[in-house]
Specification:
The protein is α/β, with parallel strands linked by helices. The chain has a single domain, classed as Glycoside hydrolase/deacetylase (TIM Barrel, Alpha-Beta Barrel). The strands form 3 sheets. Strands 1, 4, 5, 6, 7 and 10 form a 6-stranded parallel β-sheet that branches. Strands 2-3 form a two-stranded parallel sheet. A two-stranded parallel sheet has the order 8-9. Strand 4, helix 3 and strand 5 form a beta-alpha-beta unit. Helix 1 packs across helix 9 and helix 7 runs parallel beside helix 8.
Length: about 270
Amino acid sequence: MIRLVRRAAKAVLAAGDLVLPELKGPRILIYHQVGTDLGREMEVTRQDFISQLDWMQGIGRIVPFDTALAARRTEGAEKLFVLTFDDGYRDVYEVAWPLLRERGLPFLLYVTTAPVESQRPLTNEQAPPLNWDQIGDMLASGLLTLGAHTHTHPDLRRCTSDEIERELAICDEAIERRVSERPRHFAYPWGYWSSEADRLTRLRYSTAALGAPVTADPVGDDHLVFRLPVQRSDSGAIFRGRLRSGLRLEEMVRRRVRNYAPEYDHPS
C-alpha cells in the first residue's frame, strides 16, 4: 500500500514537472543498490537498470564524470549521462559491475570507508558492503573512478568542524592506503550540504556532489554538482521524466518535509 501511494504521488508530481523547463547540462545519476530485492526506494531492479542503460545509450552517451563536467556548457550536454553509485554495496560488484564491464561503461563510486574496512553493513544486514579486492578489481579495468563519501556517513549538517575534518581525513587515508589513490571527488552523505562542510571539502577535493536540484540550470560550481537519484518507484516514464526535468517538484516537496533549505538556494 505504501509503495502504491508513493508511486501515485510521484506520478502527480512528475506530471507537474512537464510544465517546467528542461534541465540544462549533463545528467548525473545516483544509484545505490541494484538487483537486491529488499524493497527499498534506494534500490533498482536488475531489469530496470538494464532498461535504463539501454535508454540512455539509445539517445546519448554514458561518459566519465570529468568528461561531463568539462562539457556541461556545450551544445548537446543534456544527452551526456554519468553513472554514480553511493556508499559501496556489494551488489554493485555482483550485479551492476558485470553489466557495466560488458558494455565498457565508465562509472564513479563514492565509497563510505567504515563498512568496507569493517565488513559490517552500513544500513541493513542484507546489504553487505564491498571489499577492497572487489574495488581493486573494478579499478583495474580503468572504468571506475573512486570518490570519497566520508568514513561513517553522518549528516554533515549536524557535525562540528573537527568532526567533519576527521570524517574526511579517515576516509581519504583509507582509500589511499588500500588502493594507492587519493580521491579527487566527494559526495555529501544524504546529499545534504552545509557551509562548514563546503569550506572543508573545497580544500581537499576537486569536486563535491549533492542531491537533486530545484532549478533548471544547476551548473557552474564544481563543488555544487547536482545529481538525480534513481529510485525503485521510477517507472520507465517517470525515469525519463526525471532525466528531462529532474522531478524538481518532488525535490521541492522533499526539502520542505525534511526542513532542508541550503544557503546556496538563498544567495545573499
